[in-house]
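TL;DR need structure tokens for one chain.
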Amino acid sequence: MKSSRKPRPTPVTPADGVSRREALKSVAGLGAIVALSGCSHLGEGKTAKSHGNPIQRENEKHGTRDWMLQNTRIDPATKYRCPWIEGYCSRTSVRAGETISFHVSTNPASSFKLEIYRMGYYGGTGGRHVKSLGPFAGQIQPDPIIGSNRVRDCKWSACASLTIPHDWVSGVYIGKLTAEREQLQSYVIFIVRDDRRADFIFQCSDTTWQAYNRWPDQFSLYDDGKDQWYWGGGVDVSFNRPYGKYCQIFDAPLSTGSGEWFLWEFPLAYWMESQDCDVTYISNLDTHSDPKGLLRAKGFLSVGHDEYYSIEMFNNLKAIIAAGRSVAFLSGNTCCGRINPRPDTRGVSNRIFGRQGVYGPPGGTRDFVAMKTLPHDRPYANELVGAHSTGVVTGGADWICTQPDHWVFAGTGMKQGEGIPGLVGWEWHGDPANLPGLQILATGPTQDAPGKLNGGIYTATIYPGPKGNFVFNASTCWWADGISEPPGYVRPSVYTSPKGPDARAQQITRNILERMRRG
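>> reply
TL;DR here they are.
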């Protein structure tokens, strides 16, 4: 979601990758993590190589920082695309044994290669190389026509198809594209999912990634041809196109092609894998289409900026809560816009979507004029999350403790009124629901700038499920900033600024995960 306020950009990470000083800073950011008990103790009494969970065994393998882009360029005429080398994948998620295809354009035509990496901890490197493809003879692939509801639906030929090996562990995989003509680079991104039982499901917020994707220039869910930040219906977006450079808050061309993964979600995945947490990864569209698959884990995690939900997603999460699974919304602006995933013109399911409505009461998000044209029918997001987007929607704040004796704060040493600086932003949740047993764990006023209140009140909440389970709402897009600082990470800064890894935020997260794991 975007208000009319103009956020200031954050400097991009240097193009030559991570310096030794930055690398040491990244490892230091994990120091407080390693010192605390948590997911890593799940394997006590077992030898990791023979008995550890798949994530533990995977992260014992050799890692590399070669996954990082070092040379990319944005076309100033479009502001977002890298036409020299850009591509997309045929699927958002894929199982081992299934096939995914890669669709790439180079302009001017250039041979290119594709290097695939799994993202994780890997001793602090952040990734592991798993496959080299190419070189391929590149070609200029045509820009798609402007279709119904302004959709840009590419029909590019595939450079390669890959059947996912059975030894590829569930995770987020990026493909680093390199054009040999000028050595320019960008990413493609996909999720390898599985069907195994695990402690935690990590949901990537990729419907939101796509909603904000302006490729090739002004064609996101927010562009109606008149308003650059439109919030109404009648606009569709397609997964059949590259991800352009992210369009707000960050100036991060070194993440071009990766959606919002590096910006909001990677720090949590990096930390969880450093702790050997038994985690498996899915797409928003898996939450939409595979309700039974959500029951295979003890806890479900919504991460980062998780704005766009189908009614099936909403109902499927309500169902797993009723079945005794715990959910943690380590996210902000969550479940705000209602979408309708549907097939593309080739009949491939869930490749196109548009807005259908708002998961909140009329007038609840008063900054967005066009939102009034959409239905505001129940269910409301706070009936799932505990609180939801409301009021001024955007802003920043310290995350201020209100229930220091609650188990969520165990081991943090936090006192009532004590805050974690800058952790709330840039979108948050308020208006807590009248749910039985709901408690407000943290709350405070939001600001347009330090000391400049904007009338918002964020609320982090928790409420009990029917079988000893719980639903936690962190009420911030920036929760993962307080958890770790992986290689290449670009810190957000708008309204207020988070301060990076914080032992208290780490311990709160560990308490939540441990309570989920125990059931």
